[in-house]
Each structure stands twice: as structure tokens, then as C-alpha cells.
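in:
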């Protein structure tokens, strides 16, 4: 009896410590009524709370269906059905230098395959890191921080045929470089 209690506590500790988790692949987002309402993109970080999840990010006023990492760093965290964006809680608003209005938001949801969340960010990009080495056959492999998260997708678009990447590989390496470029700052 007593021992069982101790074992339960030991199992509970890791989940308390690691409540922040990363999508290891694109995951289907479900409403609280378990209806499919969007996609959480690989690399996005969520907070778990008793089996539900919260995502924080920034959205453009009028285009709330794409959630970005920040108003400056346009890494896509999730895409939602228009209807579901009504559940967003806005905590801050601002206008950027281009006159675009941004809202800082939180949104709660369920995930279809929450087992595909990992607690260690470093486990996410092994495959992409290896693929990226192909970019070094003509020039040096640029450090991710040499370009911004907003620049990498268009660089990848112009360079993908050089490296012989499929559409899927291009997208994957592009997102990896976007997150990686944040680390250099
Ligand atoms: C077949 C050779 C080749 C491969 C492979 C290649 N590149 Fe390039 N890359 C070039 C050449 C040539 C240039 C310079 C001319 C240009 O900008 O088109 C360049 C330029 C660049 C630049 C701009 C450098 C600057 O000084 O502005 C970046 C960034 C870059 N490549 C990234 C990549 C990435 C990422 C990959 C992998 C997807 C890649 N390259 C694969 C040939 C290649």
C-alpha cells in the first residue's frame, strides 16, 4: 500500500517538471468537444494542463487563423479553422513598424496524438540537421543565425533544387533553420 504511493509520486514528478512540450511532427488539433479544428506544426511548444494544451503566440489582426512565434519572427506554430479562432484569449496588442496590427494570444485545445510531444527540444531536428549538410556542397553551410527566421523560407525556396530536396524536405529543413536561427541571438 505504502510502496504503491511512493511509486505513483515518482511517476508524477517528471510530468510536473516537464509541462512544456514540443510537437515532434505536425499534430491534429481538436476542440474541447474532440472535433478536428487545426494543425499544430512541428517544433511548436505547448503547455500541458491535465491532458489539455495551451499554445501562446501572435496573430495578425484579421488573419487570426495562423499563429506565429512572434510578430517579428514569423515561424508558424499552428493553423486553425476560422471558427475556432474565436476561443483565443488576447493579452496584448501592438502595431509593428509596417502598420500591421498584432495580437498576443493564448488558446486551449486537445491534441489527437499527444504522445508525439517530446520534452527535449534537441530531439526534434536530428533528421533535418543531417539533411542540411547537403547544402554545403557548393559553399559553406551557413550558420542558421546568419539569416532571420523570416529569410530562411525564401532562401530554401531558391536553393532547394540545388540541394535536390523534395517539397517535404524543403519545408522540414526550412522550419528547422527558422528555430535554429533564434538560438544565435
Ligand atoms: C549546387 C550548388 C549549391 C547548393 C547545393 C546550394 N547552394 Fe546556396 N548558393 C549557391 C550559389 C552559386 C550561390 C550564390 C549565387 C546565388 O545567390 O544564387 C548560393 C548562395 C546561397 C546563399 C546566399 C549567400 C549570400 O552571400 O547571400 C545562401 C544563404 C544559400 N546559398 C543557402 C543554401 C542552402 C540553405 C542550401 C541547401 C538547401 C544551398 N544553399 C545549397 C549554390 C548552391
Amino acid at each position: 500500500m505504502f510502496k504503491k504511493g511512493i511509486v505513483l509520486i515518482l511517476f508524477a514528478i517528471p510530468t510536473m517538471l516537464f509541462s512544456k512540450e514540443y510537437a515532434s511532427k505536425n499534430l491534429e488539433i481538436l476542440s474541447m468537444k474532440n472535433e478536428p479544428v487545426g494543425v499544430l506544426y512541428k517544433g511548436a511548444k505547448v503547455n500541458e494542463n491535465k491532458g489539455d494544451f495551451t499554445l501562446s503566440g501572435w496573430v495578425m489582426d484579421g488573419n487570426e487563423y495562423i499563429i506565429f512565434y512572434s510578430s517579428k519572427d514569423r515561424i508558424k506554430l499552428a493553423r486553425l479553422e476560422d471558427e475556432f479562432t474565436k476561443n483565443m484569449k488576447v493579452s496584448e496588442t501592438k502595431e509593428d513598424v509596417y502598420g500591421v496590427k498584432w495580437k498576443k494570444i493564448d488558446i486551449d485545445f486537445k491534441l489527437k496524438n499527444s504522445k508525439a510531444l517530446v520534452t527535449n527540444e534537441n530531439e526534434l531536428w536530428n533528421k533535418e540537421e543531417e539533411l542540411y549538410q547537403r547544402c554545403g556542397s557548393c559553399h559553406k553551410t551557413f550558420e542558421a543565425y546568419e539569416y532571420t527566421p523570416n529569410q530562411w523560407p525564401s532562401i530554401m525556396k531558391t536553393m532547394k533544387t540545388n540541394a535536390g530536396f523534395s517539397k517535404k524536405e524543403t519545408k522540414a529543413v526550412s522550419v528547422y533553420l527558422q528555430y535554429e536561427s533564434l538560438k544565435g541571438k
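note: Residues 19 and 79 are 22 Å apart (CA to CA).
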